[in-house]
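Entry, Tuesday afternoon. Goal for today is a structural model of the target with adenosine-5'-triphosphate bound, before we commit to ordering more compound. Inputs were pasted exactly as handed over by J.K., no edits. I checked the ligand SMILES twice against the vendor sheet because last time a stereocentre got dropped in transcription.
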Amino acid sequence: MVSLPQPAAPTIVAARGDDLSPAVLDAALTTLGLPAATWVDDVPALTHATASLAPRIVIVPVPVGGSSAAFAAFAAELRRQSGVRAIGVASVKDGDTVLAAMRAGVHEFVVLPADDAALRDAIQRVLLLGGPAPSRGRIFTVYSAKGGLGGSTLSLSLAWTLAQRPDGARVALVDFTTTGAGVRVMLDLTPVYDLGSIASRTTALDREFIRSCMVSHTAGVEVLAAAEELDATEPLNAETAARVLEVLRQEFDFVVVDVDHHFADQTIAALDLADRILLVSQLDVSALRSAQRTLGIFTRLGYAREKVAVVVNRRTDRDRIALGDAEQVLGRKVDISVPNDYASCADAITFGRFVQEHAPQSPLVEGVADMAAMLTGEAVTAIRSAPAASSGGSRLARLFARR
Ligand SMILES: Nc1ncnc2c1ncn2[C@@H]1O[C@H](COP(=O)(O)OP(=O)(O)OP(=O)(O)O)[C@@H](O)[C@H]1O
Ligand SMILES: [Mg+2]
């Protein structure tokens, strides 16, 4: 039997769209010494071509606002074809569209009409990614609706725990906060570059540059610190924040993101892209009220219930509010409790160390280990429930009924 040579996979397949000019794309390809693009009529045809031809690069029009059944089907196929790189194009650059593109697994985003240089740069960058797409790391975003509940302490502790795994998981800790001590102070770091360098970058944000802005901690955590001079630097816009997280997700097994309490663009990007959100609260009325409101906002943002894990921080056996009452007012289960250990936490910050390194015997260590196990799905330990405090449940129920 004679085996026929297989046709070589085309380098680039593009879906026709109003603003993507074949002449401009051809000019970009010629400069790069690449063959002309193969064109298909629409996104369903591109999905078919992605499945049947496995081209090196596909160029896909991203629907404005990011949602269409055809685009969702394309995204599902792209996930199956780990060797195919995608460049998303759209005539707008609003946060929803860019985030939808990133979530779909698109590697580069180009605003149309684009000149051949912009297309060439994007093509060059996806070609540089080389090889089959690396596996996607998981993003855990730690959020609390009000200050001082322990969001930063838990972000750092979670990153530390994940970095100690025997499989040598690569862990990034990203500080998207603009208030509070910040990871720079809490870990006594003096990075040369930080998120301010990324925010003020005017040229393309390639992965080498993003990596060069990180600093290695001896505990095995790579840290991307917030800008030191917050006044001098704008927080990241949605597109840049999403780009940073997508790059890190390709480089690391776990990306832990500490975010502000308000819904800034970078906060929403980190929440949107998170595989799991840790909603940090405490067993007091004000913290629970904030958490209750936040769960409502998360629902309106379209987050699935399972995406969110509720963490009660600073548990003691003297809590005024019982866990069961808290669950009743939140309308869901508390996933993890982390014990209170103020001395260890406060001392660790004073010495610029991870709590686990400063106070290995702290009960917080085990609490955060349970949290990490829950997130990675390796072992779900039952919440150690402290004895229920006399609850005053009915008053509490009335209080929280006022949404
Ligand atoms: N489990 C815990 N036990 C005891 N103290 C804790 C615990 N977690 C955090 N703390 C303490 O609570 C205070 C606030 O913690 P942290 O800075 O982590 O909170 P935050 O939510 O990041 O606050 P901010 O709004 O300032 O960013 C700190 O003094 C910290 O040491
Ligand atoms: Mg903080």
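The pocket of adenosine-5'-triphosphate (ligand 1) is lined by residues 144, 147-153, 177, 179-181, 313-314, 338, 340-342, 345-346, 349, 364 (CB under 6 Å).
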